[in-house]
Design brief:
The structure is a homodimer. Helices cover 17% and strands 36% of the residues of chain A. Chain A is of the alpha+beta class. Chain A has a single domain, classed as Roll (Pnp Oxidase, Chain A), CATH 2.30.110.10. The two termini of chain A are 37 Å apart.
Chain lengths: 208, 208
């Protein structure tokens, strides 16, 4: 992806990445983003789920949502995603840091109007949460599709920032008998918990 | 906290909370926020670490950061925080959801200029990452404090949104033999990993 003035960081340029492989892998691992826009000159942002497919990022929401209605007309948005991998504990407070992978996307929404395309995007959403689950669920209804707004954001202007590795302590601090290293931040999914309606329903393979 | 038009959700009002106990507990558990602002009419957002103390939220950054310099003058910002607790797997795709706790704060920065106050906020930052570690580290230097901008955001206009519990499937779907329930999203901290400089340094108590 070509860097632009607003995707070029003012600091720590070595952490910036513009290749699709890096950007897409972060987008595909993260479940949530923050979508920011401008309403009457004021910043307004919400965290929400998203899915990437090919060279676009999708969000969805209720047709009744004020925020969705604000951005569906093509208002400029900034979408951020962050995965936090580890706390970086240095010998000085100043060099404490975080190992993270983040993406910033600038763009504007295109509303997905085609019915079949909307259904397809809702399938991608569902299968990002639980892979291979779409065909197992009660089929989506026309009314449910109509109640949902799906917005696409082409990934034309995006960048990633990534920090990895150990603390970068000052040369003169390196011999100090002060512990330095990483504290990993854990993630992942726990074992599924059935609700009252599902106590006697076998857990399907795609949830095991 | 008193709801305002922009902290009052347009949908799912039952998920909204305005009490300090709820808002502060989310801010104290989360390590990262997204700070959004408006630059030349365009939305611009970055993920960053933060700390809450009393009735203010603090971020810090390099004095050389373009973003920090933009907002330190008091430009309006919107700060969002999200903790994702579980994926909510319903019997229909439409009722899939997420158990989450989020906070949205509207405000503007006050730059912390007082030297001792800056040091104090940097201590809160450090001890949010690793409790009780400040006194163990190589002491912060005046130069390090001067290279760091600390911004305070009074928590005057903020709200939380919280979803808990099981899926809310449609009445007519409840007898379907389709598994529904929760998939917990795991968090927490893993065991500390020493860097090369610390292989022979005992892990301090505050990191165990």
């Amino acid at each position: 992806m070509t860097p632009t003035p607003r995707t070029t960081p003012s600091r720590l340029a070595k952490r910036a990445h513009f290749d699709e492989a890096t950007i897409y892998s972060i987008l595909d691992e993260a479940l949530f983003c923050t979508v920011s826009t401008v309403i009457d000159g004021q910043p307004f942002a919400i965290p929400t789920a998203f899915v990437r497919y090919d060279d676009a990022l999708y969000i969805h929401g209720s047709v009744g949502s004020h925020f969705v209605r604000t951005i569906e007309g093509g208002a400029p948005v900034c979408i951020t995603v962050m995965l936090a991998d580890a706390l970086v504990v240095a010998k000085s407070a100043f060099h404490h840091s975080v190992n993270y992978r983040s993406v910033v996307v600038f763009g504007a929404a295109t509303k997905v109007e085609d019915y079949q395309q909307k259904v397809e995007v809702l399938k991608w959403f569902t299968e990002k949460i639980v892979p291979d689950s779409w065909g197992y669920l009660r089929p989506i209804t026309e009314s449910e599709v109509r109640k949902t707004t799906v917005l696409a954001f082409p990934l034309h202007e995006a960048s990633a920032k990534v920090r990895t590795g150990m603390p970068n302590d000052d040369e003169e601090d390196q011999a100090l008998p002060i512990w330095s290293g990483l504290i990993p931040l854990l993630g992942g999914r726990g074992a599924a918990i059935a609700d009252n309606l599902s106590q006697n329903i076998p857990l399907p393979n795609h949830l095991q």
